Amino acid sequence: xxxxxxxxxxxxxxxxxxxxxxxxxxxxxxxxxxxxxxxxxxxxxxxxxxxxxxxxxxxxxxxxxxxxxxxxxxxxxxxxxxxxxxxxxxxxxxxxxxxxxxxxxxxxxxxxxxxxxxxxxxxxxxxxxxxxxxxxxxxxxxxxxxxxxxxxxxxxxxxxxxxxxxxxxxxxxxxxxxxxxxxxxxxxxxxxxxxxxxxxxxxxxxxxxxxxxxxxxxxxxxxxxxxxxxxxxxxxxxxxxxxxxxxxxxxxxxxx
Length: 256
Known about the structure:
This protein is mainly α and 256 residues long. It has a domain at 59-168: Hypothetical protein, domain 2 (Endonuclease III, domain 1, Orthogonal Bundle). It is 61% helix and 0% strand. It is built from 12 helices and no strands. α2 (59-68) packs antiparallel against α9 and α10 crosses α12 (211-227).
């Protein structure tokens, strides 16, 4: 171990100056990124208008849809939800008490219907057994606690859990998906290795805790991701965010 030595005034002044410069540079970077994200939102909203997400008639329907939409299109989810509505079981306790074979058949249009029936049953167990089937009671829990409970269910990952919290519960939780990452990376907002939570922090740290804003922003990112920022051959010329691209154009990682 090196012996301790006192830091002289000049060295201390130099060190403190370096630290302060780094901090100010970081603050400018954060402020600049926040401004960019706000500008991106403004451009997207101006181009596409309100998206009216989530497409569901009730909070419970949104919860079911958030789980069923895994690995399928929303059109297929709508067909499965229509089956549940026609069978008059689109309610927590009725769906929870439905025999597995019947539930599987109703969910068939959503694909992976046996697996999704199992996952839905586990989610329903949380709603019915812990909260007596009351979504009001469930969403009255602290966000972090409820999120932890949702993530403890096999088959529910961060995106599904956060979709439930934001779109069904109206909680200030920003949802991240493949479209979010693609748009963020191509515009130089994050690095390719950024995980779900790094991407989520990008928006949460730059925007106010406003569920309506998070709802609209995520929906707009999905819209631009589908129409312009495609996985293959992105249509940058038609994209509302084209002017926000890095000087050399969109970044293209191998993982996309």
